[in-house]
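In this section we walk through a basic example: taking a raw amino acid sequence and producing a predicted 3D structure, encoded as discrete structure tokens. The instruction is simple. Fold the sequence below.
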Amino acid sequence: MATSPSNRNYSFSATVDAWVANSKKRCDAVFRQSIQEVINDAQTPIAKGGRMRVDTGFMRASGKLSFSGMPSGPARGEKGQAYNWDDTIAADLATAEPGATLYFGWTANYTKYREAYDGFLIAAIQKWPQIVEKYARRLQSMSAFSQLPKE
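The resulting token sequence is shown next.
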């Protein structure tokens, strides 16, 4: 027996509201994952295929994310000490909203010279369009709406 349209529990506005909410979640995810990947790319040491030179690790460890301006902190490391990057970026990004101004930078005083020679930041930033597209496609493929015909 066929069900008539009047017997369906269907609300167009509820469906649209759910689609909008899911779209916002996907947009937030693309935003956060893309930023995380750009930062990770810039922070990748030469030994692991990146462009950042790592000796003591101080410059890499001085990389920080901020919502209020360029990060500040120690400009020089201690002689003979080894440093590790405490990757807390994902936790910090959890509160970021698309459209927010984010700042990522290194507090090490020699970062600008290393960037001028090695280009770890500019190389990562130049990948931004491809990174965003990659995450957008990945989330689109997980979406039930990705099967709709394109207009």
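Looking at the output, two observations stand out. The first strand starts at residue 63 and ends at 66. Residues 113 and 119 are 10 Å apart (CA to CA). In the next section we compare this with other chains.
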